[in-house]
């Protein structure tokens, strides 16, 4: 009886580390720490839960350190979507101008984002606009590098992922979060090349990183930029 109780306590302690498990056809386990400290684990479909918890428990020092780092970050300002407020786009802070005589809900013009007055669902309007802009920019960059380096992909998707900048499916579909379009173009290019390289090499082995380095010798500085500044690529909806 005592042994059973101890085992239950151990499993409960391990379970407390994980807030959510997302299963898919992936082959490896990935631990994602959300800005608010939430721990999400992506795992293979048939991997036993006890092995997932065991893996995460073995990384508990790293998980706790990352959570502490995230909690120390200054809170992002609450968006008012008011005249003069600035929004990140391609690494630049673009000021917002609220106007009355405009047909489109949002438009980019002369280094300003122009917004039509009286939009109660401003966050949704901005997100929709960013998604469309991201599709345009990322399609251009993927086509450019695909043509230049001879890559062939099946499809391109824009997602609302909060921390996963891009992914490449086994069928050749490239996915990118719309938040990525807030980053500088060099950083966007790094993520594009990263996912294109996955069309050939499905893992993150030394061979994969050598391929990324061949395509983009400066990739490390862009990877580091994302690690340090990625939490700023948001409209503030994470709160």
Could you walk me through the main structural features you see in this protein, from its secondary elements to its overall organization?
The protein contains 7 helices and 10 strands. With 239 residues, the chain is of the alpha/beta class. It folds into 2 domains: 2-61, no CATH class; 125-232, Metalloproteases ("zincins"), catalytic domain (Zincin-like, 2-Layer Sandwich). Strands 4-5-7-6 form a 4-stranded mixed β-sheet. Strands 1-3-2 form a 3-stranded mixed β-sheet. The protein has a 3-stranded mixed β-sheet with strand order 8-10-9, covered by helices on one side. Helix 4 (122-149) packs across helix 5, helix 5 crosses helix 6 (206-215) and helix 5 crosses helix 7. It starts with a helix and ends in a 10-residue tail after the last helix. The model is unreliable at 1-15 (pLDDT under 50).
Shape: globular
What would you give as the CATH superfamily of the largest domain? Metalloproteases ("zincins"), catalytic domain
Measure the end-to-end span: 45 Å
Main β-sheet, in a few words? 4 strands, mixed
Number of domains: 2
Q: Strand content of the residues, in percent?
A: 15-25%
């Amino acid at each position: 009886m005592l042994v059973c109780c101890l085992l239950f306590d151990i499993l409960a302690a391990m379970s407390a580390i994980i807030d959510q498990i997302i299963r898919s056809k992936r082959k490896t386990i990935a631990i994602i720490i959300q800005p608010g400290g939430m721990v999400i684990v992506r795992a293979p479909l048939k991997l036993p839960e006890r092995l997932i918890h065991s893996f995460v428990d073995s990384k508990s020092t790293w998980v706790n350190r990352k959570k502490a780092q995230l909690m120390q970050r200054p809170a992002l300002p609450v968006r008012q979507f008011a005249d003069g407020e600035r929004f990140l786009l391609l690494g630049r802070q673009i000021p917002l101008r609220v106007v009355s005589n405009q047909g489109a809900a949002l438009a980019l013009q002369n280094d300003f984002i122009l917004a039509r007055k009286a939009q109660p669902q401003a966050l949704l309007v901005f997100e929709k606009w960013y998604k469309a802009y991201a599709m345009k920019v990322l399609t251009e960059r993927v086509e450019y590098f695909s043509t230049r380096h001879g890559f062939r992909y099946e499809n391109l998707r824009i997602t609302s992922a909060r921390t996963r900048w891009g992914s490449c499916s086994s069928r050749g579909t490239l996915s990118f979060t719309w938040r990525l379009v807030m980053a500088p173009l060099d950083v966007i290019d790094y993520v594009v090349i990263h996912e294109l390289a996955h069309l050939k090499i499905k893992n993150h082995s030394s061979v994969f990183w050598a391929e990324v380095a061949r395509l983009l010798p400066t990739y490390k500085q862009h990877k580091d930029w994302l690690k340090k500044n990625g939490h700023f690529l948001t409209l503030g909806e994470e709160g």
